[in-house]
Design a protein that fits this description.
three-stranded mixed sheet; alpha/beta; six-stranded mixed sheet; ClpP/crotonase-like_dom_sf; Enoyl-CoA hydratase-related protein; binds acetoacetyl-coenzyme A; single chain; about 45% helix
């Protein structure tokens, strides 16, 4: 794992865990921290011992967004040269499932980071929001796109225009998160444990196909899905899964 100042990582069984660790600043995401999150994800993505990645906050919150102090002096040219959001794009290329467990504030870039994950579970007291408008700017790491694709334009615009904070229950009702849970840590780890026993190649190709559904036409998406389906017939897990069904036993996937 590359050097880390603002995140903590560990591998437990087949789960790669990443914890944000800049608690004195509500895990505000400076560029180094974003780079560390991305590098940790990529390291777990390449590690064959890992099936699923878990991302959680630490201290009082998941994350209060991009580091405002770091952005204060930015200019269009400095942004163009640094291209801070290029690192965020790398999260979209992670092939394994990423589960986010969030609590406290999930604001701005913190909300965008959660939305870049695949499953989101939240503590009941979590507050989500895009406060960027109150800073004279707007979300820049996918917030306007992902929220709009998720809940539709008019509903997304109300949150984006006002910068109001959304309660966890509301986020669940709108389908932005999977579930509100009183014990985020336990819920996230239980789900990660379940997924880590699923066939890993099927998980990645399911994620890949679902991602395509967001961008492609139905017909192109279906063709992509079909190719992924056919590809899975090259895996030992396909033989194991189908044989286990016919032998009326539980399959054991990911056998080395
Ligand atoms: N960037 C930098 N520092 C931050 C920060 C951020 N996003 N959020 C909190 N902090 C720092 C505060 O400056 C403060 O530092 P000091 O102790 O050195 O003064 C420390 O964290 C604690 O914060 P507060 O004293 O403000 O704590 P609070 O409990 O009163 O409020 C909060 C908590 C509601 C999260 C508040 O800090 C806040 O509103 N933060 C900013 C949220 C925000 O606007 N996020 C959007 C950022 S822009 C963005 O994300 C763009 C993008 O699309 C990528």
């Amino acid at each position: 794992m590359p050097t880390q100042q603002y995140v903590k990582t560990e591998m437990v069984d087949r789960i790669g865990r990443i914890r944000l660790d800049r608690t004195a600043r509500y895990n505000a995401l400076n560029r180094t921290m974003v780079r560390e999150i991305v590098e940790a994800m990529e390291t777990f993505d390449r590690d064959e011992r890992v099936t699923v990645i878990v991302l959680t906050g630490n201290g009082k919150s998941f994350s209060a967004g991009a580091d405002i102090e770091e952005m204060l002096e930015a200019t269009p040219i400095s942004m163009e040269l640094l291209d801070p959001f290029a690192d965020w794009d790398r999260i979209s290329r992670i092939k394994k499932p990423i589960i986010a467990g969030v609590h406290g504030f999930v604001l701005g870039g913190g909300f965008e980071l959660a939305l870049a994950c695949d499953l989101i579970y939240a503590d009941p007291a979590t507050q989500f929001g895009f406060p960027e408008v109150g800073l004279g700017v707007m979300p820049g790491a996918g917030g306007t796109q992902r929220l709009t694709k998720c809940i539709g334009r008019t509903r997304a615009l109300e949150w984006l225009f006002t910068g109001d904070r959304m309660k966890a229950e509301e986020a669940e009702r709108l389908g932005i998160i999977n579930r509100v849970t009183a014990d985020v840590e336990a819920t996230v780890l239980a789900m990660a444990e379940r997924l880590s026993n699923q066939p890993s190649m099927a998980l990645r190709l399911i994620k890949d196909a679902a991602n395509k559904a967001v961008d492609l036409s139905l017909q192109d998406g279906m063709e992509h899905e079909r190719r992924n389906f056919y590809l899975l017939f090259a895996t030992a897990d396909q033989t194991e899964g189908m044989q286990a069904f016919l032998e009326k036993r539980s399959p054991i996937f990911n056998q080395q």
